[in-house]
Amino acid sequence: MTKLLSPAKSNVLFLGNEAIARGALEAGVSVAAGYPGTPSSEVIESLAPVARERNLYVEWSVNEKVALEVAAAASFAGLRSMAVMKQNGVNVASDFLLHLTASGTRGGLVLVSCEDPGALSSVNEGESRYFARMLEMPLLEPADFQEAKDLTKWAFELSETIGNVVMLRSVTRMSHASGNVVCGKLPVKTRKAHFEYDGPVMDSSRGPMISTPVVAKHLLHQQKLKVVEALFEKSPFNRYTGPAKPELLIIASSACFLYAEEAVEMLGLQKRVGILKLGTTWPLPRKLLEKHLRKSKKILMVEEVMPFLEENVKVLASGMVSRIGVKTFFGKYDETLPAAGELNPDIVAEALGKILKVKRKALPANYLREVQKAAALIPAREQTFCAGCPHRASFWNIHNA
Length: 401
What we know:
It is a single chain. By secondary structure, this protein is of the alpha/beta class. It folds into 2 domains: 227 residues, Thiamin diphosphate (ThDP)-binding fold, Pyr/PP domains (Rossmann fold), CATH 3.40.50.970; 118 residues, Rossmann fold (3-Layer(aba) Sandwich). Helix content is 42%, strand content 16%. It contains 15 helices and 14 strands. It has a 7-stranded mixed β-sheet. Strand 6, helix 6 and strand 7 form a beta-alpha-beta unit. Helix 3 packs parallel to helix 4. The termini are far apart.
């Protein structure tokens, strides 16, 4: 038996992408489609071997747009489905995605975007969170491996609650690292595909899957987003740790929460710094943010890569000044954190040191010497296409020609 089908309550070491795949199985996914691209590929690769046993249709599509169309067709027929791609692929799928969010869905549909801060296996650091805001999709960002599984499972439920797509965003250090995950129960699937199309035009559960009448459906979608925000306000995937009145409040999402947590511990600032971890990052839970923004006058935004949270939290804070006071924000815009590349605990610790005037204890000289010796032994590794990637053969043939 593959570890992806481990029984409930098993404690299993999963790759981040395997945890996402397990969450989809626990949600009763029926169709999964994707286009290969690091760091997303292992989600589909994990599901394919268990497809027959779990009565699951899995495919590599010809591109990301087609993958999303396959998932949407399944959703329209009432089945739970998932489209998987890297951040570049969301650009490819965005044309159809715009119309899909306008028309709505039926069976739970989750769009998984695995992104690549630092461009470790990509040609750019582009990210998809701005699509969530522009197309008005709920956005979820797991911070650890258990959340990768649990948030994926919940994303399907959320999608069916609002009748629309939900985006789950991972990053390389989440997708390609491993951690322990406590498994839930794998359901017995009883859903069968059935497409309704002759109901009222405003009833997305029985009517035609179209975006018209545009204004009326847009207003309905706005109402559903209010339902999402209300759910996000009480979500257990948002949590605060730290003192009641911290000198500095960190707001972080995804793997950056772990970097921030480690940096605070490295500098011994647990009694001076609080951390608000957001797992639900669009729409932002405004009441929750107001509650925690009251705690401190200084706010550090820790995120990769673009200042998505920083921008949106600043906008919210500007409308709350009469209630929360004026805040000083640190992050990408003031160059407290770098505007490009991955973050890590050392970078966040350096930022904390600047803000709070704290010096990090110097590492022993003999440790640094040993690090330098070890670094000299590591062979140079240039970027290349992954084993099995069809682009390898394509470029080899072009080179030879």
